[in-house]
Amino acid sequence: MGTVSRVAAKLNTVSPETRHRVEQAMRTLGYVPNIAARTMRTNRTKIVGLLLPDLANTVFLLLAKAAERLLGSEGYTLFLYSSERSPTREIEFLELASRYRMDGLIVSLSDETNQSVVEALSKMECPIVLLDRDTPIRADVVFSEHAEAMQRVTAHLIELGHRRIALITAPLGIRPGRERVLGYRAALRDAGLSIDETLIGHDYQTSKYGFSKALEMLRRPVPPTAVIAGGDEIFYGVLRAARQLNLAIPGDVSIVGADNRMLSDVVTPMITIIDRDMEQVGDTAADMLIRRMNGQGGEPVHVHLPSEVILRNSTAKPRPDLV
Amino acid sequence: MGTVSRVAAKLNTVSPETRHRVEQAMRTLGYVPNIAARTMRTNRTKIVGLLLPDLANTVFLLLAKAAERLLGSEGYTLFLYSSERSPTREIEFLELASRYRMDGLIVSLSDETNQSVVEALSKMECPIVLLDRDTPIRADVVFSEHAEAMQRVTAHLIELGHRRIALITAPLGIRPGRERVLGYRAALRDAGLSIDETLIGHDYQTSKYGFSKALEMLRRPVPPTAVIAGGDEIFYGVLRAARQLNLAIPGDVSIVGADNRMLSDVVTPMITIIDRDMEQVGDTAADMLIRRMNGQGGEPVHVHLPSEVILRNSTAKPRPDLV
DNA sequence: TGCTACAATGATGACGTTTTCATTTTGGGG
DNA sequence: CCCCAAAATGAAAACGTCATCATTGTAGCA
To answer: Is B279:B65 a contact under the CB 8 Å cutoff?
Structure first.
């Protein structure tokens, strides 16, 4: 009977006595509401999909945790999916979201220039919040600030006396990669230094690439005296390369990492990093999405969140004989 | 009409011509099947839930990836959930699984002695595969071997000349904690060494605990010459403690880690670890679950998978003055 | 007491799929 | 050329919930 539904929905159009009776019965019968049936009737699943490039990345986990907390308080369940940086898997995820009729999506693309992904994304029916990507899609976006922090930390290295500073970061196909290169160039330009293009790497966002690129650079006859790693994986790779070459940090080479507080804490010495508050990113994205799922209309909203440079022991003056 | 369903289900009771017509129409109308409706009719969601204690743990991610691959090939979607080692969240997950009518579950409990979790688990209707836990629940289980590998690595340290070997591992409320302590004790016993209970820690499975416990032990007037970390987080903590005290590895203290290949690769020096093939664990669990979901009956199956000791540079003879 | 107004509850249909059953069409053999 | 078997297709019911509408019960007021 419809009354059961009224009890479940906690409406107040049911007498206390009846409510009690129904609740009693639900317990003894082990009644569990059938979400599929509810979904068919209401067209809402109370599921929000979160698409991430990579789950091994602690940065994204902080974000996911924060988003889950906020969405959970509104009765939503978070569905976590990792694309492994594969556009094919990104499209598969969107397919999944359509079929299961998810109520909303938070999406971090692995390549914002990929046409088919962007097209599939723009065809979605549910509200979407994008993470840190420039696309023509009409959707809310949470941007992280990269250029300015990169400019600051590069300037800091220059001030310490570094002249050959390497930057290894994500491809230019995603905004963070582009922005970081921009900030880096700006700092060098401001200092009146020429830019050695061979000291900039932005081919892949993997630990392997960070490793091999850093290795190649640091083995040159005239190696860089500092290496800036943009992004978690590359950071790992750069650290491995430094160790492989038995380079002391910061004695032989200064290193700047990104995001990964856990790793940068455990490595000797503690690493200077560019950090951002991923919980804030998660909270912001979830909040924007909840509003949209509640039917709030209006133009797409763009939020910009700051990054922070945390100076620690991995950056110091270069050895005079290396400069 | 029912024919559409026949086309979607790829049954061969439909003429090629009609099939083509229907597929054409589906494309032009942008038809996406409604899983909720299908679920209501068939009582299957094609969703498998994976409950993990922690997503930051790379060990579990390898497992999840492997399971997802195998389940995906059978048309299942993996729903990932982290309990954050909270029994409350574990029960919430089971609630979720019931409401959404998931087809099967793979579950790693944070405390197998928790009555309400075990009870909730035993009330579930769908097939369940447990990961490495001893419970009275009638379900398939994938066990990892811990005791024997721990015994081997402890014996190795004894052979190198260590006499005060610390073990910091997971609580005895989960099988890996118990088994590791067993193996450790067995090795000491076999060598005829007495066991210093103050060198065994098994209170929490957190980085913080590993850090503070290792710090306390290593600061003693007569500190251990080797520390074995059982589990990922504790491993992190032990490394941080060693760094904080400026202890050289393995000069001042030998260290044995667990599971985390990524971390043990990047830290100087490379760390001796107890390792296991988590992809195999994931594959095995997924395979067992798929069989059950296909209706295969029979007694619960228990599978035991091996662990491996990988000797690297973090274990060496203790300094003579320390022994 | 009798009427109205409102609260509480019962009955019913619709959501989109699958499946079963009935009907129509097709093709082959007598 | 006709009939029957088999293949193809159409029609209809059911899954569990929620929302709408109709009905019953109750209390308040004249």
So the answer is: yes
